[in-house]
Write a structure and sequence with these properties.
single chain; alpha/beta; Nucleotidyltransferase, domain 5; 2 domains; six-stranded mixed β-sheet; 7 helices; 26% strand
């Protein structure tokens, strides 16, 4: 979403309730996701390049009453953005030392992806006192489990959709680089359709199989699907999985609320 669109839509929402907002920033490898929350309500979100992030946030601080901020990153970023956030009020840099509303039992908390932990926190918020598995379909496919007693115990990581297509092209001499297709046939009748079948059916069956295995251990398991690629697979799981496209941002906002 362009900033002008973000700005216009947020003006309409903020004029309805005169309250300060929380700023949530989730920095990925090539871009940043920015969201504004009125308490637990997602007012608006946008995406920008890392190069644009500083100026984008400057405009937000100039225009809106931002009460507090949180920044989470899986990649390096300019320290100037931290100075900007600190100059405007309370800010949390989300790391392994941040107080969170669930218990983290992961054995290497420093290496745990912040997005994975945020997903777990968000899932636990929406399914309190239940065993819940978040499935994040982004660059990688990440499964993360929170038990009904509020303990994050870990999960698994496997290659995501684009990574699988790229690896077949990169690590072979002749296989082409392809993109996903709608409803690929199980049986590919030439090389392109064979690759699409292998990647897309492989992901679908992997997710089904992993969820089924978790379900055997946690009989009342709830499952939350998120991530940029979840839209391509949500229909296949619609009867058993809850889709939360903004789960990572919602989890980060829960950290802000918990630290009030």
């Amino acid at each position: 979403m362009r900033y002008s669109d973000f700005n216009t839509r947020l003006d309409l929402l903020l004029c309805q309730v005169n309250k300060p907002v929380n700023l949530v920033i989730d920095i990925g490898n090539t871009q940043a996701k920015i969201a504004l929350f009125k308490e637990r309500e997602l007012a608006e979100k946008a995406t920008c390049s890392l190069f644009e992030l500083h100026s984008f946030v400057e405009v937000l601080f100039a225009k809106y009453e931002i009460q507090k901020s949180i920044l989470s990153a899986v990649a390096n970023y300019s320290p100037t953005i931290i100075r900007l956030l600190e100059s405007q009020g309370s800010v949390i840099i989300f790391d392994e030392f941040t107080a969170i509303p669930i218990k983290n039992l992961y054995k290497s908390p420093k290496s745990l992806g912040r997005d994975r932990l945020a997903n777990a926190i968000g899932a636990a918020h929406f399914f309190k006192n239940e065993d819940v598995l978040s499935v994040d379909m982004g660059t990688c496919i990440k499964f993360d489990l929170v038990t009904k007693n509020g303990q994050y115990v870990g999960g698994s990581i496997s290659p995501g959709l684009n990574m699988r297509f790229k690896s077949l092209n990169t690590f072979t001499d002749k296989l082409p680089l392809l993109n996903l297709t709608d409803n690929p046939n199980l049986v590919g009748t030439e090389t392109d359709t064979s690759i699409q079948s292998g990647v897309q059916w492989g992901i679908k069956k992997e997710i089904e199989g992993v969820i089924a295995e978790y379900g055997r251990q946690y009989s009342q398991l709830k499952v939350v699907l998120t991530g940029g690629d979840h839209i391509y697979f949500a229909e296949a799981f619609k009867n058993s999985i809850f889709a939360r496209p903004n789960l990572t941002l919602e989890g980060l906002n829960e950290v802000l609320i918990f630290n009030e």
